Structure of Protein NO VEIN C-terminal domain-containing protein:
Amino acid sequence: MATSRHKITEELHSGSCVFVPYASDSSPEDVVPGMFLSPEEICWHDPTGCLDQIKEINPQCSLTEVTHCPLKKTLSNIYPGLRDFFIDGCGVHETPPLSSYLQILLQLSTVTLPSQAANAVFQVFLKWSDGLKSGLLSPEDIIYLKEHLMKLNCAVLPTEYDKWISLHPSFGLVCWSDNLKLWKQFKHFDKIEFLYFGKLSEDEKQILQTKVSVLMQTIGIPALSDVVTREAIYDGLVDSSFKASLVGWALPYAQRYFCSVHPDKYVKLKQSGFDLLNRLQVVVVEKLYYRNVIKSCGDSCASKKRIECSCLLQDNVLYTTQESDSHALFMELSRLLFDGTPDLHLANFLHMITTMAESGSTEEQTEFFILNSQKIPKLSNEESVWSLPSIPSQTKNDDSLQTSFDSTKSKKKAGNNSNWPPVDWKTAPGFSYARLNGFKTQATAAQPSGSPRKDDSEGTVMETDNVPISIEDDWTVEDDYAAASKALVLSANLENQSGNACNSTYSDQSGHAPNHTVSTMHVDFDPVDLDLVSDGPELGASNFSSRDHLRFGNPNAAQAMQTGRIGESVAFKYIIGKFGGTAVKWVNEDFETGLPYDIIVGEENSREYIEVKATKSRTKDWFNISTREWQFAVEKGESYSIAHVLLGKNNVARVSVFKNPVKLCSLGKLQLVVMMPRQQKEFSVVS
């Protein structure tokens, strides 16, 4: 019995033994015309819908044009209920083989318009993407696809202008749009063809960005942003010595970060002899703009739109203006190490180190922060430290800015640059007194450990111990409802100017805001609802602290960062106790992200965002909030909260939470304050 079954199976596999009617709408009792096909010529069903679309548009072609398509029919609608028999017994493919879809698309392109078949083509690309990831699409299959798509007569790619094209050079540059703004600038150029996949759902758009994009890159279809470069346009060359010194000072820190976080990339760069750094130039200009160009399409393929900017890396030249801030400069510098893509984390890291230097932190304080907070180890003694040994004193032309880098000779100590950072930032070119919000920087001499320093305002004493409290300590958290009813909010970019936890970095992502917690360790997670408090005179403006001046004194940047880190850790562990580890995420747990929030609570569709502000001073009834944080407080509304953490003695912390601070300010429950520099020049107002 088993032998005969085996023989029957062999017979079914070897010949054209499956009857397929020309029309599939007949009943089983009807006598209908058709033909016998082999298992290799049919499949059970096509999940992309291509074969069904071919049959609907041109029913006759599916069986009569045998030579144009190896798969001519699906059986699921002809023999429902016989799936196991055909697949297991007859050897019929459940779905078309991945390599056969190219011929299916060719047949589809002969019977329908690109706009009608666009989504079916997307489904085929998705099948290929899954095959590429799983290994079902072999390297030989990839070569087959690339070779055939390069042929002029293999026009199976739909475009936005409703025509079928291939990757043949005669069609020009073929790409897909991953950037709406760039697409608007280049959509009318004759030498560029944009693929069209129909009207995609939000999920399909995400799949296009994450999965299908990998396939298209593999077969030679780039994203628009990958082929667009920025061309610098500038007016007037000025002295570049200060900016070049800043870059040269930051390079050793960038090297430490790059070597630690991206060791594979670092090894590759080292094998090249650090050629990119060897050719790096710093050019400072009066006005800087750029336009987008696609070099592969010739000189004529350039956007007419000119965009003003403060920094721009083009090839080996880092253009910048005197007014550019350090974070923008470091974002552009990071492109040099990441194939033209800015790296926010590296820029944030360098910006924090720069902020500490601006605030007068000692080298020991900075090193402590790098090793213990950022977890960036020192370079090995065998590594040659990156540097820009040749710093131009005055810009005459581009050639005079050429710097040199010898990876075999440079042994310069990290951060040890004679021109940067200057001791007194009030006199530093490009970093004016106003840039520091009017606050004089701290001297570079270290403060004796354990000695308190008096603030200039209201006799407040700010602790400035150089040895910070470990964030691993256990803290007892108490409610602070009273503080939640009378706090001041400073709306200004004054990060790290006091012992509160303000982000000292920027973000290129959309910002968020905090969730909301005020309770003890063993009670429910309930916010302080100021709407339930009486609106009587005691909560009016007179209840807020009355003062003529609100000053920061001389801030200790390292201590401020450590205080913020401890505050975030206390808030994070406390919230985990209420919601569990799976529902709470501390975004800065491993490294400073630069996001305008510190903790996320909940899932994607119902998230709450918590910004933590921490202090060690019991008399300090205000905290900084950056303009970016405030903007997203406005955007998120009830989903944004600020958790104020008071770090007291004996590891006792008190928490106040302000849910929707924008609303609280509008109701008079919180107050916004705009700080001005101490030294003000007289000016006149023209009405």
